[in-house]
Amino acid sequence: xxxxxxxxxxxxxxxxxxxxxxxxxxxxxxxxxxxxxxxxxxxxxxxxxxxxxxxxxxxxxxxxxxxxxxxxxxxxxxxxxxxxxxxxxxxxxxxxxxxxxxxxxxxxxxxxxxxxxxxxxxxxxxxxxxxxxxxxxxxxxxxxxxxxxxxxxxxxxxxxxxxxxxxxxxxxxxxxxxxxxxxxxxxxxxxxxxxxxxxxxxxxxxxxxxxxxxxxxxxxxxxxxxxxxxxxxxxxxxxxxxxxxxxxxxxxxxxxxxxxxxxxxxxxxxxxxxxxxxxxxxxxxxxxxxxxxxxxxxxxxxxxxxxxxxxxxxxxxxxxxxxxxxxxxxxxxxxxxxxxxxxxxxxxxxxxxxxxxxxxxxxxxx
Length: 366
Hints:
Layout: H1 2-30, E1 31-34, E2 37-40, H2 43-48, E3 50-53, E4 55-59, E5 62-70, E6 76-79, E7 85-90, E8 97-98, E9 103-108, H3 110-141, H4 147-173, E10 187-190, E11 195-200, E12 207-208, E13 216-219, E14 223-231, E15 243-248, E16 255-263, E17 273-281, E18 292-298, E19 302-308, E20 313-314, E21 319-324, E22 329-341, E23 344-349, E24 356-360
Antiparallel strand pairs: 1-2, 2-22, 3-24, 4-19, 5-14, 5-18, 6-13, 7-9, 7-12, 8-11, 9-10, 11-13, 14-17, 15-16, 15-18, 16-17, 19-23, 20-21, 21-22, 22-23
Helix pairs in contact: 3-4
């Protein structure tokens, strides 16, 4: 019984070895490999392979990445009162367009009243110093005054004028005209820029402390930033002034045009990407802050070698193609690419514009 089992096992081993030899012989008849060179020996296999000369075309290199809609900082303002106080009146509503210096709301503030008093005191002291100097000058003219007293009066006026200028500057910071001011009046908070009131939490009667969050936001969103994150390896394709096509997920059929405005000077060490800014027109108001966008950076047209994507093959570490060197001879050639579009790949290294490659069917030779 054991002898019969051994004979059967021996027969199976012989049969398997024969099959492998037949397969190997068939492969050697179809093609043979010497290093990176492949020799196609079988006409049937050769007919399955399609060869073409590489194309040399003017190509617009494209980098695609994600971005978000953000406000331009110089056209965006958080509104908070300079003094703590209680809101006495509101002048605006949500969505309203306001021009720069337009009143937004008013607050009653003891600190503002103190600033008013300082102004009136500085104004009074300046007037007294002016009168004292005038009196000392008259005494000098009549020969009864001293030069020392005159100089002291001049110094006192200089100091009083500086105090007055400081008090006026303090009121100007709060957009208050001292000439029209009344002691004890409410402080009027005004818009620093022109734009729409996109957020307001103003409630008449509420008390606002000095460390409170802003109670209103004014923004001019007629133009916005598209902030894109570009990988470090793609920076060489992007330059200031390049065109951009921006696809907003909320409007699938709309393409927003833009231009590269600026690239940050530092790369994010965690993501190895860099911020690229673009200013886009938003006069129709479709772009909302925080919206996601797909950004297509379009480089200037350059002449490049282009091959079908089907021609690209992949080994463990690299991409390669088969370049024809003779009637039935092909060499495995490593290439570098920079993306592709419409079924074509752009080759940046490894091929010459006169090369003929296997454009389809190269996988038969792997």
